Amino acid sequence: DTPAASAAAPTITVHIHPDTLASLPPTARLYVSASLPGERMPLAVRATAPALTQTLQLTDRDSMTGESLGSRPQLTYRAILSADGNVSGARLAEKEHIASGDATLSFDLP
């Protein structure tokens, strides 16, 4: 990432309840995505193994369209916890926030 791209990216922290984390199957994945407000199709997404607390930034490297996330004044950020590892599959929890620039977002997943 370039310093300018990272500076405009919100810092996203996801907390997963310990009981939920302990009960997850090995196939579980955490997806964090950014989309235009009012749209479900993500512009950028990152998938990781679930952990109690994770902090990350979605940057242009995570872009699915090749466009710069910093070129958008506002985006909807989502955290999705999937039991089967498929973003369209068995969702255990989902939260979203709308933010712009270098906001700090926190998602608490039950």
Could you please describe the fold and organization of this structure?
The protein has 110 residues and is mostly beta strands. The chain contains 2 helices and 7 strands, in the order αβαββββββ. The strands form 2 sheets. The protein has a 4-stranded antiparallel sheet, with no helix packed on it. A hairpin with an 8-residue loop joins strand 5 and strand 6. It starts with a helix and ends with a strand. The N terminus is likely disordered.
Q: Averaged pLDDT, please? A: 89
User: Main sheet, how many strands, which sense, barrel?
Assistant: 4 strands, antiparallel
Structural class: mainly beta
Helical stretch count?
2
List low-confidence stretches. 1-7
String of helices and strands: HEHEEEEEE
Strand order across the largest sheet: 3-2-5-6
Report the radius of gyration as a whole number of Å. 13 Å
Shape: globular
Give me the secondary-structure topology.
Elements: H1 3-7, E1 11-16, H2 18-23, E2 29-35, E3 42-48, E4 53-56, E5 75-82, E6 91-99, E7 104-109
Parallel strand pairs: 1-7
Antiparallel strand pairs: 1-4, 2-3, 2-5, 5-6
Summarize the structure in short:
With about 110 residues, this protein is mainly beta. The protein contains 2 helices and 7 strands, in the order αβαββββββ. The strands form 2 sheets. The chain has a 4-stranded antiparallel β-sheet, with no helix packed on it. A 3-stranded mixed β-sheet has the order 4-1-7.
Q: Could you list some keywords that capture this structure?
A:
110 residues; mainly beta; disordered N terminus
